[in-house]
Amino acid sequence: MERERKLLQQTVAIVAAIPVATGLYGVLFGQALTGDAVSISAESHFRFLSGLLLGIGLCFWSTLPSIEVRTGRFRLLTLLVVIGGLGRLIGLGLTGFPSFFMVGGLVVELFVAPVLCLWQTRVANRYAEEYGVAEV
After folding, report:
1. Which residue of 13, 36, 104, 127 lies most exposed, with the fewest beta carbons within 10 A?
2. How far is Cα 77 from Cα 20, in angstroms, rounded to an integer?
3. Per-residue model confidence as pLDDT tens digits over 14-54
4. Could you list the residue ranges that cross the membrane (predicted)?
């Protein structure tokens, strides 16, 4: 049980570094990541969304110390990520295939995040069986 918990913590820490790093970069440098010139309003919106991305990554990191009892928070964050991924998927259908990095984001949002959520639930259930009820 403890070994699996540690492995989950390490995996989430690494995967959450992606939104933390890209979100922070977007907040600081705006659209420079894409190389596209946009209006000031679009730049502002991009920085806002980057801030949300940064916040989501930081919130995933906040689950790490007691990941086995943070099921509710983990599920909410996963839901937000999946909704964002569905938005990206719709955009793919409407506007075409984005860059390799954006497709990578789509994979993390629609596959990796749900798998991590299922894994967290498994660890939480095992913890609850052994020590009592985990947060739902």
Report:
1. 36
2. 14
3. 999 999 999 999 999 998 877 788 889 999 999 999 999 99
4. 12-33, 45-64, 76-94, 100-119
